[in-house]
Write a structure and sequence with these properties.
Length: 428
DNA sequence: TCTGGGGTCCTAGGACCC
DNA sequence: TCTGGGGTCCTAGGACCC
């Protein structure tokens, strides 16, 4: 594939809040926030909530007073709803461009093999279409590469008069420089918490400064990824559109509703996470060869002593079988568990993933029958859970009560993915 | 009382080999 | 007396993203 001539980034505005508003019109025009798992952090804010100074990613309990004073509405996160709406948006984008990279739940890069004069009209058509068909407002930025498209999209959001569209495709060098000079260096895609302040210290305040950073500084202090980023600011293409490839690691981690001190409860949580991650592993037709388990106390706590540890074990034979992966995970837990601590979070990570068919081809018959049996059993389990709902069949070790499972006090219904929770509309 | 979850990529440093 | 150095592979951990 030759290098595309135009890149676009489509970004859903306040995505989780927009999803909640779609089915709860009473939330429109009000300050709204959506919280992370366990109702811990703020992960999405409406424009009204941003204006109140509620920080993105901040701890919810720290802004309780603002919430009370201004009547801010809040919702626990509802990922099955967001995932479903995300897919609908992405399908529409795929009808606009052949090359689409779904970058995250609320963002996608598009590539076009042409440069057109009327690209902003295309953008307006696209944003209208998405909003009309899904109810989700989006912004779009066009540019000659991904890094600049990201900047264009941010600009589109800041200047709503332009209809949620911004293009840097036809901008002259001077115009582009003027735009870059308004972007703080820390807001550039790929410059984070550590590099941002460091670059500022070096006198590099804006994206424009970074674009013109001296070569020695780029080589000495930026990673290869950082050097590519600088080249993209200059207009080169260093980050091509990525194809959808299988994940290299699959993780399931959660913090608990309350502290766990009991090893048996910790094992229940681990078993639950193994089940969840193993299902996603099978979803991409992979086997895992390594299982990592980690446990930790609350790093913010000053009341209790700190402890965190992880262990990685190789499974005897790469597998996607929940019970076999669980055996390895519990063995790993045995090596790291220490009594007397208040555990706040645990996680399971599968790595060393390989495609099932590749593995099976290299198998020499040894263990093949067992593996086929495992796979058949898991297929049956997955299809039952798909048919009758999650949690119909599970490994007993997961526990039934799960008193440690996460807190979600203000969760909206699964309007689009659960028959029991479908939106009922009265037609008179 | 209460601070998320799931990823990718890169680098440094140790082990090992010749 | 004087005890190398370069390459590769692996892993842990950091930085960054949404």
């Amino acid at each position: 594939m030759s290098t595309p001539d135009t890149f676009a980034l489509v970004d859903c505005n306040n995505f989780f809040v927009s999803c909640e508003r779609l089915f709860q019109p009473e939330l429109r025009g009000k300050p709204v926030v959506v919280l992370s798992n366990n109702d811990g952090c703020i992960v999405s804010r409406s424009g009204e909530a941003k204006k109140l100074g509620i920080p993105m990613g901040g701890a919810f309990y720290k802004v309780r007073d603002i919430v009370a004073r201004h009547g801010v509405c809040w919702r626990s996160s509802n990922f099955s709803l967001y995932g479903d709406l995300s897919q609908r948006v992405m399908r529409i984008l795929q009808s606009f461009a052949r090359d689409v990279e779904v970058y995250s739940v609320d963002e996608a890069f598009l590539a076009f093999p042409f440069v057109r004069e009327d690209i902003e009209d295309v953008g307006r058509l696209l944003t209208r279409q998405v909003e009309m068909w899904t109810g989700i407002p989006v912004s779009i930025g066009f540019a000659p590469n991904k890094t600049l498209a990201k900047i264009a999209t941010d600009r589109a959001k800041k200047h709503p008069a332009a209809g949620g569209v911004c293009s840097l495709v036809h901008a002259s060098e001077e115009q582009r420089n003027a735009v870059l000079a308004e972007v703080p260096v820390g807001d550039v895609w790929g410059i984070g918490r550590r590099m941002g302040p460091f670059l500022m210290q070096q006198g590099i305040q804006t994206a424009y400064d970074l674009k013109h950073a001296p070569e020695w500084l780029v080589r000495k202090h930026l990673t290869v990824q950082g050097a590519r980023l600088v080249r993209e600011l200059r207009g080169d293409v260093c980050f091509p559109l990525a194809r959808t490839v299988p994940k290299k690691t699959i993780a399931s981690t959660r913090s608990f509703r309350r502290y766990i001190t009991d090893k048996r409860e910790l094992a229940e949580a681990i078993a639950t996470y193994v089940g969840r991650a193993a299902r996603r592993l099978r979803g991409q037709s992979s086997y895992a060869s390594l299982v990592t388990v980690y446990i930790r106390t609350n790093p913010f706590s000053t009341r209790y002593p700190q402890y965190h540890k992880s262990a990685t074990v190789a499974v005897p034979v790469p597998t996607a079988s929940t019970p076999r992966l669980l055996t390895s995970a519990l063995a790993a837990l045995d090596t790291i568990f220490a009594p007397g601590f208040h555990y706040q979070k645990a996680g399971v990570i599968f790595s060393g993933l390989l495609p099932m068919h590749v593995w099976q081809r290299t198998l020499w018959g040894e263990g093949e029958a067992e593996q086929e049996q495992d796979d058949a059993l898991m297929r049956a389990l997955d299809s039952m859970n798909k048919k009758w709902g999650d949690g119909t069949v599970f490994v007993a070790r997961q526990g039934v009560q799960q008193p440690w499972s996460m807190r979600q006090d203000h969760k909206s219904r699964r309007y689009t993915t659960s028959w029991q929770e479908l939106l009922h509309v009265k037609i008179s």
